[in-house]
Amino acid sequence: MLQTRDFSHYVKDVDGRIAHLDLAVEGVHCASCMAKIERGLQSIPDVTLARVNLTDRRLAVEWNKGSTLEPGQFIDRLAELGYKAYPYEPVRAEVEEAERTKFLLRCLGVAVFATMNVMMLSVPVWYGGDLSPEARDFFHWLSALVALPCAAYAGQPFFQSAFRALKAKSVNMDVPITIGITLALGMSLVETINHAEHAYFDAAVMLIAFLLAGRFLDQKMRQKTRAVAGNLAALKAETATKFVGPDEISEVPIAAVRAGDIVLLRPGERCAVDGTVIEGRSEIDQSLITGETLYVPAERGTQVYAGTLNISGTLRVRVDAAAEGTLLSEITRLLDHALQARSRYVRLADRASQLYAPVVHATALLTIIGWVLAGASWHDAIVIGIAVLIITCPCALGLAIPAVQTVASGAMFRAGVLLNAGDAIERAASVDTIVFDKTGTLTLPELDVVNAAGIPPEVFDLAGRLALASHHPVAAAVARAAHAKSPLPNVVEEPGRGVRTVFGGQELRLGSPAFCGADAEANQILSEDPEVSVVAFSRGEQRVVFAVRQLLRPDAAKTIDALTNRGIAVELLSGDREPAVRHAAAALGVSAWRASVTPAEKIAHIEALKKQGRIVMMVGDGMNDAPSLAAAHVSMSPISATHLSQATADLVFLGKELAPVLAAVDYSRKAMAVMRENLGLAIGYNVLAVPIAIAGYATPLIAALAMSGSSLLVMLNAMRARRVRRGAAPWK
């Protein structure tokens, strides 16, 4: 019977040219595993990307759509490399990870039980100076009775991994560990049979216990980081209530919803789409996007996003984007990218870990041969070789950088910062100059009516209702400020001038001052506040002018001041008019500013700063800022920037506040400091420990303690990357 495998359902299209597949891979737990998988798949013709995310053991594969490659070929290739793989499904992956965590915990419990009992049985042998040979043999046999079956069970994570690697004719980090454990147990059994004085059951089971403790803690830390992405996934609704007729609704999969459809959002439901409210009133919680923890009113014209929680009323929403096109999906993709991206430091640690197995095997073999040539017995030489195998385990080196990156990425996300480049942390840590764009970056993206208090309520209401008929952003600001819900009837739009209608026997107009006959009133407002934009409203002989402008982000001045206190120079480059830029610079205390700057001039200024030796971060939004974002050493954009899939920014920040820019700098500096500390600890450990082991001063027991202690030390030190000094508080 011919059996075929169809995984086409799991393949995603990227830009019409590239096919993308996510696979869950079992048995990946170190840098050498990642490197072997990536090299093995990248050697296949037409494969453009193979990237392993160690946090959730997910493999992303991309290849040219025009090729003959099929998903099953990647699974077969992974099997040849010694890894079992299957299409990645979040629910299944979570179940598998939960089972693995339980399995590691059971193994750790057995190993700890064996360690305590074998150590207890070893005490009489160590300190019993007058212990008879028969009694010593009795304690050794009891130790073997406890250690051998316990090691066989508790050592499964290492033994299985090593077996798969050897079956695939390769080696990984678990191969020398398995050899060391097996040699220690085997030699101890031989020594016990031959009534020898020493046995090493205690060292073998203690090594297993400490290795499992490190692996279990690593697993829990990764689970905690994955929980951030899991929380985002929980916000995604799988279905939506769609209008299939004027008064008929149907619950459909989110994949069946298209832009332009109308969906119903009931109280207590999470929105499944990005869209605009067209009917109804309610309160909503969209703190993920805006950072505002209080409920905000939602009515006609309110923008809602996937993941938004509807609190009270029923809303009808016109769909702007659904499924993978929503802002929530974009945030999730950025977070995934941050977790799987690797910096220069990570790649350095990866390469060092890849050299581990052959170097350690050669070192242990040469140590044994050297001691034999020096006159030592084969027994003593092998014991020293076992100690070398154990003490040189690169767990500390393999964890040194990824652990910090994982902790820092999660902490930065909680502070409202998403990484979009693997080395963004390294580059952001060295920044000494930040260049800000103004519009949409230092200011909020939406316009606001600044003279609303002086407008009569009745006039404001009519102007807002008339403004609903216009798509102009200034008119939209008037409608939003007036809380307008119902548009006026029979509105006529005159392109480039404004909108008009007849209501209550009077002609109403909203538009340019000339269109409404309000030039005098507009000139007076502009003379008092030249950076505002104006829109006029007329009702018969009555004239009113609305002053509109973008407001600065609420914490912009405080954030700029904090950056300056950290020794970072702040500049403002904007394409906006000089009065508006001067006003913003004065309000923020920024002395270095330029207005009416073109994109080319922004790039030239950034290049000039770089020639002066400055490390520049550019913070901006909009397509006109994309070239300058790319020109800077590191770049950052607000979530409200132009479509994120086209963004060139290395980091993206959420919410209405500017504090995430400060947090990005602080967390990056702290993470880099901890990375260097961890590399120093890992390298220093090996520089000190390996010569001691080769010289024969470290027994297998001491080697197990030293190796495990170094791994725990770098993991505990990595947790310090979650804390920064006061002033870069978590995103509010």
From TrEMBL:
GO terms for biological process: metal ion transport. The keyword 4Fe-4S does not apply. Residues 19-86 form the HMA domain. Keywords: ATP-binding, Cell membrane, Membrane, Metal-binding, Nucleotide-binding, Translocase, Transmembrane, Transmembrane helix. GO terms for cellular component: plasma membrane. GO terms for molecular function: ATP binding; ATP hydrolysis activity; ATPase-coupled monoatomic cation transmembrane transporter activity; metal ion binding; P-type ion transporter activity. PROSITE patterns: ATPASE_E1_E2, COF_2, HMA_1, HMA_2. InterPro entries: ATPase_P-typ_cyto_dom_N (IPR023299), ATPase_P-typ_P_site (IPR018303), ATPase_P-typ_TM_dom_sf (IPR023298), ATPase_P-typ_transduc_dom_A_sf (IPR008250), ATPase_P-type_domA (IPR059000), HAD-like_sf (IPR036412), HAD_sf (IPR023214), Heavy-metal-associated_CS (IPR017969). Its main location: membrane. It is found in: Cell membrane; Membrane. The keyword Transmembrane helix applies. The chain crosses the membrane at residues 103-126, 138-159, 171-193, 199-217, 355-376, 382-404, 678-695, 701-719. It comes from the Bacteria. Belongs to the cation transport ATPase (P-type) (TC 3.A.3) family. Type IB subfamily. This is Cation (Heavy metal) transporting ATPase. It comes from Rhodopseudomonas palustris (strain ATCC BAA-98 / CGA009).
